[in-house]
Amino acid sequence: MDQATVYVVGAGPAGLFAARKIATAGHRVLIFNRDVKLGGLAEYGIYPQKFHMKNGLRKQFAKILAMPNVDYIGNARVRSDERLTIGELRDWQPKAMVFAVGAQGTKKLGLAGEDSKGVYSAKDFVYHYNRLPPFASQDFSSGRRVAIVGMGNVMVDIARWLMVDQPGEKPDEVTVVARRGPFEVKFDRKEFDEIETFLDRALFREELSRVAEAVRAVGQDVSQIAETTFPWMKTEPDSPPKSKLTFRFLASPVGIESGENGRIERLRVVENVLVRDGESTRPKVTDKETSLEVDTLIFAIGDLADPTLGLPYGKNSYVTNSDPAEPDRAAYEVFDPASGKVLDGVFVVGWARKASEGLVGKARFDAEQGAGHILKYLEGAEVKSSPSAEEILQGMRSRGIEAVTKEDISRLGQAEAQQAESLGLPEFKFSTNEEMLRAIGAKVAS
Question: What pTM was estimated for this model as a whole?
Answer without folding.
Answer: 0.93
